[in-house]
Each structure stands twice: as C-alpha cells, then as structure tokens.
Amino acid sequence: MKLINVERSNPLEGTIKIPGSKNSSLALIAAACLTDEPVTLLGIPNISDIRVIYELTSKIGLKIEQSDQGNVFLDPRKIYSSNLDPVKSSSFRSAYYFVGSLLAKFGKVSIGFPGGDDFSSRPIDQHIKALKMMGASFTFFDRYYTAEAKELKGATIYFDVITCGATINVMLAAVRAKGTTTLLNAARDPEVTDTASFLNKMGAKITGAGTDMIRIEGVTTLRGCTHTVIPDRLIAGAFLMGAGITEGSVTVEDVIPKHLSSCIAKLRDIGMDIHEVENSITAQSTGILRATRVRTSMYPGFATDLQQQKAL
User: Fold this and answer.
1) Environment class of 131 (CB within 10 Å of its CB; exposed 0-12, middle 13-18, buried 19+)
2) Where is the Enolpyruvate transferase domain positioned along the sequence (predicted)?
3) Residue whose C-alpha is closest to residue 41's, from 198, 165, 149
4) Residue ending a domain, choose from 228, 245, 279
5) For the domain that residue 102 is a member of, what is the CATH number?
6) Residue 110 CB-half CA count within 13 A
C-alpha cells in the first residue's frame, strides 16, 4: 500500500455505552487463577486479546464460560500446569500477569516474552527485579523464560519507574506470598485499583491501591466472588475526542468521569463543551477549536493511548 486517503466524515452524533476495560480484564482473569473457588467476572469485552487468553488458559486447565452479555465464569480448581504456550503468550504483553498469579501456587512458570504492539519493546526488568527480591529466580531462553520460587516472601520494593504492568504483576505474586510486601512508587492507574478490589473481594489483604504505596499482607487461601470490571477509559476518551474531530456531539455512558479527568481537562482547553454527570460524559464541539500542549504521563496524567486522537 503506497498511500492512505483520509476524507472528512460527517459529524459524530449519538450516545454509546462503554464496554469493560480490556487492560483491567486481562489482569482480572490472571488474578482469578489465584483463588481456590470459582469466580464470576461481569462486563468482560469479547475482543481478540481476551479470546487469546481464554485459549491460552484453557490449555492449562482453567475452565471458562462466557455469556453473550459479557459475564464470564472462571473455575481455576482444575489448573494442572503453569507452562504457558510461548507463541500464544507472546501475542499480547500482559500475559506476564500469569507469572505473578501462578508462581506462588506452582513454584514454577514458563511463558513467552511479552508481545503486543509492534512499535516498541516491552521491557520486564522491573517485574524481574521485584520478583527476585521476593525469592524468585529466572532462566531465559530464545522464545520463552521460566520463573521459579520454592517460596515467595514479602519484601519492600521500590519501582525505578512507574509501571502499571509490574505493579499489578507483583501485587498478584504478593497476595499468596509469605509475609508483607510494600510497593513504593507504585502505579496509580484505575486498572491497579480494580485488580486490588477484586483480590480483596476474594480475601486478599491489600491497602493503598490508587496511591504510590501499596501494602499487601500475604494470605494462604482465596475464595470465590463476583466482580464487575471497570469501564474502558481509553475507548471513552477516543469517542469524546471524535466529537471534536468531526464537530459533533457524543455522550459516553457507563463511565467513571474521574478516570478521564486529564482527557476532559484537555478537551476543555481546546474549546469543547463538556458536561459530566454521575456515570456519563457529553462532549460537544463548539465549531472553533484551539491548539494546546499535551504531554503524556502515567495516570492521572494524560494517557499515551489518547495522544494520537488528540493530535487530529
């Protein structure tokens, strides 16, 4: 393909319900493997990454049933292996969550290197550093790596950079580790808080999620529960920006406005009318948009995934 021809569309108008967060769903499915009883997750989106994770985990014994409404029943009691297919587990970056969720139960996990978007590398140095501090050892091969630990023990861990993936992964490992783990310079993303909320419903003892210091007191067992995944803030932000790009008016429903505070602030900066209520946001173009400076950063800063839409 030598060129892509882009033509201006008609104004984007209407109301849309936002699905559950993909990033949170991937972490929640991995977290479900920690418990010793069935769990139900509500609002899981039916998308390719989720379908890959179903196929990946069904091969190790996780029983999965999904309804048309997005309700997913997960039974981890018959998981018999922690050797994850290296090709499938490399097809999306957050497969590494299964290291945190399975290591304490099985003592060894084999998994492919993280994949996902093909425009940048996916370093896992902070994951490795933290899990080593908890007693794990790593062996690296061409297509996959293994993590082993006779016993995971609590530790005080400072992340050299703020990382949502490592924060969630180490939090998963710490839930069934011996003793107390403290995570410093932890990510504050809603997906971290959602995962901690789900784990606490199952009987974990996690405090501080949503701040830069998270404390996890290890437990020996976890119980089943029902949990609803948070809405996808990135999809919601894209639709709100679509209203500005096309000079339209869009209402996103089933959202948590606080999760979109930086996006909303920038939309107001450029001249859009924004109306917020408890679980919906309406963005309307005024027809005159002005330039503004955007610098991406970790939550609660402006999300990297929204910068390209903003540039339009």
Assistant:
1) buried
2) 7-309
3) 198
4) 228
5) 3.65.10.10
6) 11
